[in-house]
Specification:
By secondary structure, this protein is of the alpha+beta class. The chain has two domains: about 290 residues, Orthogonal Bundle (Hypothetical protein af1432), CATH 1.10.3210; about 160 residues, 2-Layer Sandwich (Beta-Lactamase). It contains 24 helices and six strands. The chain has a six-stranded antiparallel β-sheet with strand order 3-2-1-6-5-4. Helix 2 runs antiparallel to helix 3 and helix 12 crosses helix 13. It is globular, with a radius of gyration of 23 Å. The two termini are about 40 Å apart.
Length: about 500
């Protein structure tokens, strides 16, 4: 096991450094915008296209316009075209003088890293928009913007801590671990958490916020954004690697399109995106593609899960866990059930060192457990569609009868493995996990689930005891709450 670096205060440090500053805009964008705004016959679509290819300018417009429209009489601005209509050509023509110039304000490696992130953000946004057209989405522009916003945490890090992004990349390549785990080891938090905090602070569109919460993968629009982000990031490394193959299959299932057809479409769009954005001056995802007339393009991709094995496992941090339990048990602190659940999940992830943690509740039909909150799986859209079908004969149906806990590991697997639903085994892709049903004063609240992501990182007996102790403290605190309703 590798000791993770605890630098959670980096999150607040970055938020403080970013403050109300704006991301810089490419010089090419400034020139193109000046030229377009001086023409009498320039169409809004042309200016929109200029803006969309510069994520820094897109974010600026959304921040400014949503601040201006922050009243009960106006709806939020969710697309570039809406923002441009709200400001008008005259105000847009004044933007170049107001905005920081990326080429003049940043030096390598920050400049190169930010442009690389811009490239991935635009590629992801174009892919998500194309899939939205497949799905006959009524507002594809909103999907485009929400996808670009997904990258704002990475943009902020690129400007302030490019060395940390490079360290995350090195760790992933050297140790073959999942992206969010590398982020946690280097930063102490997931980059999506930073993106969410910035999007919330800057009052960015609600779909963007929704897509940054892993438990919202159950909603098609948010799920499509998550898939596009993962495709853009993975394809920038290897189009035919295991990770990208898994994502391509997920996209095919989501759109109900044959894998060979959607893979070819995604490849061709990546080439088109590269042609549109060659002025970024960084390696595009399309540069890693084989020839598009390769006969192998027509073959079904056989996906392998790249996270099935890893040589790195998180370890418990007793001081963090002790502080969280003390916080939970502090009867003088007033909190809601939602806040208490999030604090407990933090204790499982940061304190016990469990990679993926979930709190699940019953759906409206009462036959399935669905995620209420997830931590540690930001870059795994399929896992984030976490569901457990409850039947009397399966393990979880039995578990949800009263407060009780179970561990599945090398000691208990032979007894309980056959009781676990097959679709759940396929979802989690690991053979070791923890679960505890939560009842308070006879009322079912939900279920805590946790694992270490891979078959190589088995859940040990010490982690099981810590998990049960944390859940028991949470139950005691729940008994003191004024309300036990989550969806009020």
């Amino acid at each position: 096991m590798l000791q993770q670096t605890r630098t959670a205060d980096v999150l607040q440090d970055i938020l403080a450094k970013i403050g109300n500053h704006h991301f810089p805009v490419m010089e090419r964008t400034i020139i193109a915008l000046k030229r377009a705004c001086t023409k009498d016959d320039t169409k809004t679509e042309e200016i929109t296209h200029i803006v969309n290819r510069d994520p820094g300018l897109t974010l600026y417009l959304l921040r400014v316009c949503n601040t201006k429209s922050n009243s009960s009489l106006r709806s939020e601005i969710t697309s570039t075209s809406q923002a441009l209509m709200m400001l008008g050509i005259e105000q847009v023509s004044l933007l170049p003088a107001k905005l920081p110039n990326l080429d003049k304000t940043l030096k390598d490696p920050a400049k190169h890293r930010l442009l690389t992130t811009f490239s991935r953000a635009y590629h992801a946004a174009e892919q998500a928009t194309e899939w939205a057209r497949y799905r006959r989405d009524m507002n594809t522009d909103e999907i485009f913007v929400a996808t670009q916003i997904h990258f704002i945490g990475e943009m902020a890090l690129a400007m302030i801590y490019p060395d940390k992004l490079a360290e995350i990349d090195r760790l992933r390549r050297r140790r073959q671990i999942a992206s969010e785990e590398a982020q946690y080891l280097v930063l102490g938090f997931a980059i999506n958490q930073l993106s969410y905090e910035l999007a919330r602070k800057w009052e960015l569109p609600s779909l963007a916020l929704e897509a940054l919460k892993p438990e919202n993968a159950k909603y098609p629009r948010a799920y499509s954004v998550m898939l596009a982000v993962q495709l853009a990031r993975s394809a920038a490394v290897d189009w035919h690697g295991g990770k990208t193959q898994v994502i391509q299959n997920q996209i095919a299932d989501f759109l109900d399109i044959p894998i060979a057809e959607i893979a070819t479409a995604n490849h061709k769009l990546a080439v088109d995106v590269a042609r549109q954005t060659n002025f970024y001056g960084v390696l595009s995802a399309a540069a890693l593609l084989p020839m598009l007339d390769d006969p192998l393009e027509e073959e079904t991709i056989q996906a392998k899960n790249p996270n099935e094995h890893a040589d790195i496992c998180l370890i418990p941090q007793r001081d963090v866990l002790t502080n969280i339990i003390a916080n939970i048990e502090n009867s003088e602190t007033k909190r809601t059930l939602k806040e208490l659940i999030h604090l407990t999940l933090q204790g499982m992830h940061d304190g016990i060192g469990l990679n993926r943690v979930v709190f699940a509740t019953r759906n409206t039909e009462k036959q399935t457990m669905i995620p209420y909150s997830i931590k540690g799986a930001d870059n795994d859209p399929v896992f984030n569609r976490f569901t457990i079908k409850l039947r009397k004969e399966n393990l979880f149906g039995r578990l949800m009868q009263k407060t009780q806990a179970i561990v599945i590991n090398n000691k208990t697997r032979s007894t309980f493995w056959e009781l676990i639903p097959k679709d759940f085994k396929q979802l989690v892709v690991t053979n070791s996990f923890l679960a505890m049903s939560i009842f308070v004063k006879g009322e079912e609240i939900g279920l805590f689930y946790a694992d270490r992501h891979t078959v190589d990182c088995q859940v040990d007996d010490i982690s099981y005891r810590l998990f049960k102790s944390l859940c028991t403290s949470a139950i005691a605190a729940m008994e003191q709450l004024d309300s036990l309703h989550l969806r009020e």
